[in-house]
Amino acid sequence: MKKLFLLTLIITVCNFAYSQRITYAVTTQNDTITNLTLKNEGLFKGSLLMSLQEKLTVTNKQGITKSYLPNELKSFMLYYEGEKLQFESIDNKVFGVLMYVNKVKLVKINTRNYFIYAFTRPNSGKTSYMEGKGLSRRITLNEIKKEMADCPI
Questions:
Q1: Number of alpha carbons in the 13 Å side-chain half-sphere of residue 43
Q2: Pairwise CA distance, residues 124 & 51, whole Å
């Protein structure tokens, strides 16, 4: 019984003590901030992603904790379990995971029940939002083309 309790305690402490390094964060004044550690908000990737959409809470080398809202940062990047996650500020309201960028920028926003995809047009900078449908909560290329009929690129 003691061994089971001790093992559970060790696993719990390791999960809460694990922190992620922020590779960089770009402010709205185009200043780059580096050497930050993410203050771990959740144990699982889904809860971590949802908490990062609202604000980014980091600790610097001196141990000072600071929170950044979407209207204070343009973007930030971190590595989570070997996966590169780049977040972009969308309309200064929410951070979303950058999925694709070329001429059109595609950003995914997680909610509890569905995904919202945000598209930024290169010619006007206008952002459109689409809700993921179906069991996989994805959108199709045909749906994207219908939404972006005014953007020939």
A1: 6
A2: 30
